[in-house]
Amino acid sequence: METIKLKDLTFKPYIRREEISSAIKHVAKQINKDLADKSPLFLCVLNGAFVFAADLFREIEIPDAEITFIRMKSYIGTHSTGEVQMISGLHEDISGRTVVIVEDIVDTGFTLLQLKEMLQECNPAEIKVATLLFKPDSLKYDVTIDYVALDIPQAFIVGYGLDYDELGRNLKDIYIVQE
Ligand code: IMP
Questions:
Q1: How far is CA 41 from CA 58, 89, 115, in A?
Q2: Which of 5, 21, 110, 159 has its CA 20 to 30 A from that of 133?
Q3: Domains of the chain (ranges plus CATH)?
Q4: Residue 170 above 70 pLDDT?
């Protein structure tokens, strides 16, 4: 695989689609086991998590599983703005329900913390978190992540739904920025 250029940055191949796929299957297996007797509502955090959510949700074998979508934004370019906006909100009643937040990546944990606080106000029975990628060295906030598909170092990545200024989401593999 070759390097790719998005705007001013060059990215090199980092995690191949086969590895992503088997990591997702592994996470789905755990969720299928843990939440087998629940009626979980998967909450896909747009835009970045749409590819992961589509692949994860098709591996979920819980008959009463549902999925819905919200839209958040915190990054501009390669940096967090330190401010999270919910651009499109939640229309379902989540009181008394098991909610599984589906995130593309947890970096500082700020977005996740804000989202969890917003959801808590609606009195769900429990909130679980599933993320495709986790940067453990970047974490700054005290948030519990229940399911992590892949741990990655503190570097900027794109592909498989993740973007650099909205570009790169369509890449089938994950690419890392070249220093
Ligand atoms: P946090 O609030 O710092 O945890 O950042 C979470 C959000 O920032 C994610 O949902 C992504 O939209 C974005 N983000 C963080 N790291 C990256 C990255 O390496 N590539 C693309 N987007 C990222």
A1: 14, 15, 15
A2: 5
A3: 18-152 (3.40.50.2020)
A4: yes
